[in-house]
Amino acid sequence: MTIEEEPIAHLLIEIVDDLIQDWGLDLDEPVGVDTLLVADLEFASVDVIQLCVAVEEHYGRKLGFQDLLMHDGSYVQDLALGEMVRFIAKQVSGV
Amino acid sequence: MPMIEANGVKLNVLHMPNADPAAEHLVMLHGLATNMAFWYLRLAPALNERFHVTLYDLRGHGRSERTQNGYRAGVLAADLAGLLDQLEIDQAHLIAHSFGGVVALEHACREPERVLSLLLADTHIGALCEDSPYNHWYEGEALRQALESRKIDLDVSDPYFGYRLLKVVAEMHLEKTEVPEVLQELVNPLSGALSKRTTQQWFKLLTETDAENELTAPDALSVDRLSPLHFPILAMYGSKSPAMYTGEKLLRVWPHAHFRQVLGAGHFFPMTRPEELLANHQALLTGEFDQLARNRQGEEPINHFRSDRFLYRDGAWYFHTREHTWQGPFSSKRDAGQHLARYLRDVSAA
What is d(CA B239, CA B242) in angstroms, rounded to the nearest whole number? Predict the structure, then answer.
């Protein structure tokens, strides 16, 4: 993980921990960049939107999450938090 | 995203303000077994460039409260009116998909002065289809055979086939049974892994509350109630969708409305073909449709479905032929248009 990506990872983990706090999940490991939103946290599409909105509110701008989350009109099957971190870093830096 | 209590139920709401405080409001209503995510990624941001956009999860869906009852269209319309009151939205444009359209229409019949325009996307209206069989739909027979060969006990002529299919597919997902390919297009929102909890939620809604009986109770959207609606209306239906029959019925209900058939698309075209929905919505509000002659000279003034001949998908353009094929990809709409002209020339010369 690059220096730019570290604070983004912290931000995402904080938001996700807040989102899932009362879901009663039995996690083997704490939420991290390798955590899968669906397989590990049982995210529904509306939870992903909740996460995206929280991130966009933090940065005060749209980040174009559709490019990360949609393929051929359907949501992707699953996503690791680390993939989201890299995407946000790219969007924020404008690369 | 805030939870707002309206009509006695807590609703999950996302309000996306436009930079211009004077911009008009637009509210989007999703269909059954899905949630506001249906709109969020591909449609809401584009519409937000012009409108204050409000998305919410219907009662019992997404993160909104699941109540024991209150799933008839009348109650859900009261939820919407209550939500608009809470947000101090006097009037709004509405975009509604599937059952969300039943809710939007019920709201419009009760308070027509609050609706600026309506885009109705693939909504089935039971009250309009009671007089005739439901099984003459484009793909109905093929689907009936597919269901029979897999011993899936569903009647494709049932007016609420779509709702019952969603329940059967939810059961398949929960039992980890493979969903036949022929059903995938019909149940798009339940087909991805991201929807495991959405599937569980939908199944619980149907098995633990009064929702199934209330959702399949006859709606009260009769011709007498619908025909006085005079705000701008655009009805879009997928050409492969079972709901198309409702669209054909609506042609005679609203002579002033505009009708678009999305060629080759099924029930969930707002997700799979969002560009077409956006382009047609814009045409509705800019008056572009009104400039098109509705009927040829000398013909009876009868409304009919039109189709877009060009399709933009995954970064490329295609054109549709009278032989029901899509030709492409092309890099621009202009390029597709030139190839279409050449294609027509070749066909007429042959």
Answer: 8
Cα–Cα distance measured from residue B119 to residue B95, given in angstroms and rounded to the nearest whole number: 5
- Looking up tokens 């939908």, which residue turns up? B202
Q: How far, CA to CA in Å, does B255 sit from each of B234, B297, B302?
A: 11, 17, 8
Test mutation, B18, B194, B199, B271, chain A, max A CBs within 10 A: B194
The amino acid at residue B208 is: E
Q: What is the pLDDT of residue B144?
A: 79
Structure tokens at B279: 């382009």
Span B185-195, pLDDT tens digits? 677 655 665 67
> Which segments in chain A show pLDDT lower than 50?
none
Distance CA B123, CA B242 (A): 10
Q: Among all residues of chain A, which has the CA nearest to that of B185?
A: A74
Q: Per the CB < 8 Å rule, is B273 touching A45?
A: no
Task: Provide the pairing of β-strand B326-330 with B233-238.
Answer: unpaired
Where are the extended beta strands (E) located within chain B? 3-6, 9-16, 25-29, 52-56, 92-97, 115-121, 233-238, 258-262, 306-307, 310-313, 316-320, 326-330
pLDDT of residue B246 exceeding 70, the answer is: yes
Q: How far apart are CA B45 and CA B66, in angstroms?
A: 28
